[in-house]
Amino acid sequence: MFYFKYLKKELHYFLIEHKSTRFVIEYGTTLFLCILSALFFALGFRCFISLGDSTLAVVGSDSNIIPHLATGGMSGVSQCIILFGQIFGLEVNYNLLQSIFYFVLNIPLLIFSFWKLGFKFSFYTTLNVVFVSIFINFLPTGENVIFDQIGLFLADEPLARGIFAGIMTGLSSGIAFKANHSAGGVDIIAYYYSTKKSTSTGKYMTLLNGVIILTFTILSIFHHSDASVAIVTALFSIAYLFFSSLVIDTINVRNKKVQLQIVTGNQQLAKVIVANVPHSCTIVKAKGGYTGNDKFIIYCVVSNSEVARLVHKIRIADPTSFINTVNLKQVYGRFFIKPID
To answer: Who contacts 216 (Cβ-Cβ below 8 Å, separation ≥6)?
Structure first.
């Protein structure tokens, strides 16, 4: 562990001195995570959400098979548009139209992103959208292709498909957020409002995606003339949304806040906190219940990602301090969050 910390420290100093190398590593890593995020989404869509034509040909007209689960975001809006066309008897190449509509519908949101959320964030979000559109349409298809084999194996297990689809697309959005961009679509809107409101991203995405799934359900009733099939599809799609939101909020801790309550006899510990995080603190005088000695309780609120480093610094400055952490749902007032690039 010590050797690892030493190497990490040396690498940090090396990158400070070599700006061009730091630039290549930083942007190369972000590009890799962008492609990985897009691939996860496309695989989740191909394997679990929308069964391929070859898979549907094998399972035939089995009424227990749900060919397409409803998704959220621009992929969900794309599904609604395609379903609307099918209601009027339009025969379509599902994956091709899905990739086209997904890209086109993201254009106004990408413009909004460049306007409100910064160039770097928006640039990589645009690349993510482009890669998703490419992967959805050009990933190989056929009975012997692993993606369609997975879809065939779980074709009659819509709950499992919903769970795995939620995990895959949640990983997609979570990885994108972790790399300081998004997977496009409603992720942009959710990320914008969660930053403004200083709260978690998942609940905003769930709300927006819920409206899209409701629309998909209504259109499905008209298309299949069978309300039971549409409602069951919506129920499994809700499972997909739940797991997707859960994974996103687990990975994306940018807007999660933690309150630290530090009991110490050293009032100068407050200076250690202010020197190591871009947040202030509040000092309250107290008295030890057992010893009767004068104590101080220092309250501060920090981002989830700052907790470990700050606790480490506090323990070095005062090994006898007592630290309690409390996860917060939301904070009100001025709280510094690193601006989006």
So the answer is: 70, 76, 79, 80, 83, 233, 234, 237
Structure tokens at 240: 């997909």
User: What DSSP element (H or E) covers 324?
Assistant: strand 322-328
Which residue is associated with the tokens 């990602």?
A: 305
CA dist., res. 105 & res. 131, Å (int): 15
d(CA 92, CA 114): 33
pLDDT digits (tens, 9 = 90+) for 248-289: 778 876 677 889 999 998 888 888 888 888 888 889 998 888
H/E run at residue 27: helix 19-44
Q: Which domains are present in the chain? A: 2-251 (no CATH), 257-328 (3.30.70.120)
Q: Identity (one letter) of the amino acid at 243?
A: F
What is the per-residue pLDDT across 87-113, written as a single tens digit (0 to 9) for each? 777 776 777 787 888 888 888 988 988
pLDDT at 15: 60
Answer whether 173's CB lies under 8 Å from 165's CB.
no
Pairing of strands 294-303, 257-264: antiparallel
Order of all β-strands in the sheet with 282-287: 282-287, 294-303, 257-264, 322-328
The model carries a pTM of: 0.78
